[in-house]
Write a structure and sequence with these properties.
Strands 1, 2, 3, 4, 5 and 6 form a six-stranded mixed beta sheet that branches. The protein has six helices and six strands, in the order H-H-H-H-E-H-E-E-E-E-E-H. It is α/β, with parallel strands linked by helices.
Length: 252
């Protein structure tokens, strides 16, 4: 990095402060991605985070010899905190690569189940009594998909253990309300839903079915909306909603 970039050390210290805040957010985001993905994605995330950390560290060190040295000290603390957040996630991500690779292979083999297919050699489902092994299948998700949606206690170690395939449908917006304003514009509120089917991979039959509901969107703003027609969506259904559905509907 050119030396003239650091000529104004007070400005460099100020940059370090902003970079450290961004690095803390990146620690959570990159750490979450690293813990759930496999190579090469996990390697890319590691490189990106390390580059961000090095840039922040360089700015913080240079800023120590400026009138804003306190900001640099705080930035160094921020780098340490970001590393403390990111490193455990990444270690867990690398530790579980074999398990995640096995899940990817199992999920790929079970994709036909969501279209009504049957997979010979998988386990027969029987309600109650013993632990149930299942995987989740959903479109537009980075594999493995199951860690995004279900607890680790349900993961199979091999294809032959799978008793249930959770087929999660695409996002479907459901109209909640249309708010009209005096300037002729409107705000339309949508709640995001996803269909859910629990299927037996051995028999190809639907064991249970339902709908997952995301959070409702925020209320329409009051007063005059001069921003033109707009839409406001709630959150996508997630792990928490599916966990409740599994515990109350599928495995009560």
């Amino acid at each position: 990095m050119p030396l003239q970039f650091f000529s104004n050390r007070a400005r460099t210290a100020r940059r370090a402060g902003w970079y450290s805040l961004f690095l803390l957010l990146a620690g959570f985001l990159c750490g979450g991605i690293a813990s759930a993905t496999v190579p090469p994605t996990i390697h890319v995330v590691l490189v990106i985070f390390c580059l961000l950390a090095l840039v922040t560290l360089a700015h913080a060190i240079v800023g120590l010899w400026s009138p804003r040295w306190k900001i640099s000290i705080a930035s160094l603390v921020g780098v340490i905190l970001a590393l403390a957040i990111f490193i455990p996630f990444t270690i867990e991500g690398y530790r579980t690569i074999p398990q995640k690779n096995a899940l990817i292979r199992i999920e790929k083999a079970l994709e036909p189940v969501c279209s009504g297919g049957m997979i010979p050699g998988t386990a027969a489902y029987s309600a109650g009594g013993k632990p149930v092994h299942m995987v989740a299948i959903a479109d537009n998700s980075l594999p493995p998909i199951s860690p995004i949606w279900i607890d680790e206690q349900y993961y199979p170690e091999k294809l032959e253990e799978v008793e249930i395939v959770l087929c999660i449908g695409p996002k479907v917006p459901v109209h909640v309300e249309t708010c009209s304003y005096t300037d002729g514009s409107s705000m339309v509120r949508y709640q995001i839903t996803r269909s859910i089917e629990a299927r037996s991979p051995l028999a190809g039959e639907i064991i249970a079915a339902g709908t997952l509901y995301g959070d409702t969107p925020k209320e329409c703003p009051s007063g005059k909306n001069a921003g033109g027609d707009r839409e406001m969506n709630g959150s996508d259904p997630s792990y928490d909603e599916l966990k409740v559905w599994i515990e109350t509907v599928l495995l009560p």
